[in-house]
């Protein structure tokens, strides 16, 4: 009997994943691009609570207000704004956005292409004369592209995160520290949600 159970367990781990609809999300294959209609966009406010933001930024979480932000246009996206008071700068805060591929039918690998394009070419931002330049780094095995204010990273070929900081005098070293403190936690929460 114990051999049968051992064989069953081994077969379960070696069985390839074929289905990725919502009914089979526990078998989610992170490398396979899926039509965003079949993907759930989770609330970033639930993926990253105020106490984790406070810990990374060395502030008490009770001073951080957390507010969900609505979707923009037809893109399947959700955002969360974390705000606190700072005497040196008004509107101090952080934005966390989760989005799926807005042009899946035309470009299933759009999220990967945009991540690479930002690293290679930078990004035009309305109101600025010059492109924002991004650098590449890795948080564990997760590739990120970042500037001193923003960071992008993907979860497989289906989800992209954007995190933006509006902080006084943020350095590249601080930005990378925030990324190392927050991104693994966000990714773990996202994976737990996908595998529920």
What's the structural blueprint in terms of helices and strands?
Blueprint: H1 2-14, H2 44-47, H3 50-57, E1 65-69, E2 77-83, E3 93-99, H4 110-121, E4 135-139, E5 142-146, E6 150-155, E7 159-166, H5 172-195
Helix pairs in contact: 3-5
Keywords for this entry:
196 residues, alpha+beta, Protein Transport Mog1p, Chain A, seven-stranded antiparallel sheet, 5 helices
Structural class: alpha+beta
Q: What would you report as the Rg, rounded to the nearest angstrom?
A: 19 Å
CATH architecture: 3-Layer(aba) Sandwich
Sheet with the most strands, sense and barrel status: 7 strands, antiparallel
What is the first-to-last residue Cα distance? 30 Å
* Structure annotation, total helices: 5
Characterization of this structure:
Strands 1-2-3-7-6-5-4 form a seven-stranded antiparallel sheet, sandwiched between helices. The protein has one domain: Protein Transport Mog1p, Chain A. The longest helix is centred in the C-terminal third of the chain and has 24 residues, at 172-195. Helix 3 (50-57) runs antiparallel to helix 5. A hairpin with a 3-residue loop joins strand 5 (142-146) and strand 6 (150-155). The radius of gyration is 19 Å and the shape is globular. It is 31% helix and 22% strand. The chain is α+β, with helices and mostly antiparallel strands and 196 residues long.
Summarize, please.
The chain has 196 residues and is an alpha+beta fold.
